[in-house]
Amino acid sequence: MTRIIFLGPPGAGKGTQAKTLADHWQVPHISTGDILREAIKQQTTLGLKAKNYVDGGHLVPDLLVQELVEERLQRADTSSGWILDGFPRTVSQATFLDSLLQKNNLGTAMVINLDVPDDVVVGRLLERGRRDDTEDVIRRRLEVYRSETTPLIDYYGDRKQLIVIDGNKSAPEVTSNLKDLIVSC
Ligand code: ADP
Predict the structure, then answer these.
(1) Hey, whose CA ends up nearest to atom 14 of ligand 1?
(2) Is residue 71 assigned to a domain?
(3) What is the pLDDT of residue 185?
(4) 132: CATH
């Protein structure tokens, strides 16, 4: 059963690696950022509520994201696992996910922290050029990552669920290190 959570700052390569591994293991790649961007594009109720937060580089309120993840994890395609990219991002989201997994007898997930220095991620994001990849918004997303999401490194470290991977390498090298590590766990 493959259940993997990707942590790491914006631009660490979470999306790229999560997608590659999800294809490899034939499990869904669940990116809360992608789901929110699609909802914004389609102007759904969720999208309308989330738009200003996403465009400004702020976190969407926990309850909204938790609801969307709970719904997504109930779909049939998750029966042999999933790769979560961008969730959880706060301690509250992590405890929510823990209780969801417990409630459904799904054990614990393995958590990958893709470690990349700030100057490298800013350069990568400016090259990518998504609409929330302007310099100001990138700076805010990094601040939010530091204050809200880095506590999860200790949270999962204390629970012995954490694996740290050097993300400052080429994408294929990172993929191959991830495959080696995850198989050996
Ligand atoms: P990145 O890792 O590059 O910041 P994401 O695609 O993961 O990009 O997220 C983009 C935006 O979507 C975030 O800045 C935030 O506004 C929103 N978002 C995504 N996931 C979450 C989450 N788990 N909790 C709150 N907001 C989220």
Answers:
(1) 57
(2) no
(3) 52
(4) 3.40.50.300
Q: Whose CA is nearest to atom 19 of ligand 1?
A: 33
- Minimum-distance ligand 1 atom for the alpha carbon of 57: 14
What is residue 184's predicted lDDT score, i.e. its pLDDT? 52
The residue range of the domain holding 150 is: 2-30+81-184
| Residue 53 in domain | no
Please compute, for residue 25, the number of CA atoms within 13 A of its CA located in the half-sphere on the CB side.
24
pLDDT digit string (tens) for 128-151?
Answer: 888 899 989 999 999 999 999 999
Three-state DSSP state, 115: strand
Structural domain includes residue 141: yes
Number of structural domains, the chain? 1
Pocket of ligand 1 (CB under 6 A): 10-11, 32-33, 36, 53-54, 57-60, 65, 86-87, 89, 93, 141
CA 147 to chain centroid: 16
Opening angle at CA 126, ends 124 and 127, nearest 5: 65
* 32 CA to centre of ligand 1 in angstroms: 6
pLDDT in tens, 31-50: 999 999 999 999 999 999 99
* Residue 129 forms part of a structural domain: yes
